[in-house]
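Anyone able to model this chain together with heme C?
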Amino acid sequence: MPKFRAPLLSLAGAAVAIAVFAGPGAAQDVPAAVKARQSQMQLYAFNLGTLGAMAKGEAEYDAEAAQGAADNLVALTSLAAGPMWAPGTDDMSIDGTRTLATMWDNFPDVMAKGTALAEAAGGMAAAAGTDLASLQAAMGPLGGACSACHKAYRAPE
Ligand code: HEC
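re: yes, here you go
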């Protein structure tokens, strides 16, 4: 009875879709992998913010705090990221994420952008504890490495 198969399959598909997108509880269904990568990003932002505030003169330059933030960024770029970007966790497949599906189609470029960030963080770690001018000079490449990846693979808000 081939005629029955397609409707049954699409019903099964609908049941899965409802389970994933079910109403107000949906936020609780955000996969741990997504929460983990967003948490990593928050840690990036927090430490970049420490450096950025000093660079802009909003906070007094503090060599030790600057070095700490830069070292944190270096450590964060060294996390094994693969499991946090599990296939099927793009913004078309699930709620609660802004990662574009194209990220999974452009793996070498994503790696290159991750490497660019690691290099910029290394540059900051070499500069941040020296003096304010060195910190400021390292700020552009660092912020640029963040936004290059966001422009390519993060959906606008
Ligand atoms: C290799 C790509 C890449 C790099 C490099 C990168 N990001 Fe992201 N970032 C993303 C993607 C993709 C998202 C969307 C994550 C999601 O919602 O699944 C994101 C999300 C974020 C978020 C929002 C997190 C949340 O709670 O939803 C912040 C904040 C952020 N990034 C900050 C940074 C900062 C700061 C840097 C640089 C120090 C950086 N990112 C570098 C790809 C990147």
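Residues 34, 37-38, 41-42, 44-45, 48, 97-99, 110, 113-114, 117, 145-146, 149-150, 153-154 surround heme C (CB under 6 Å).
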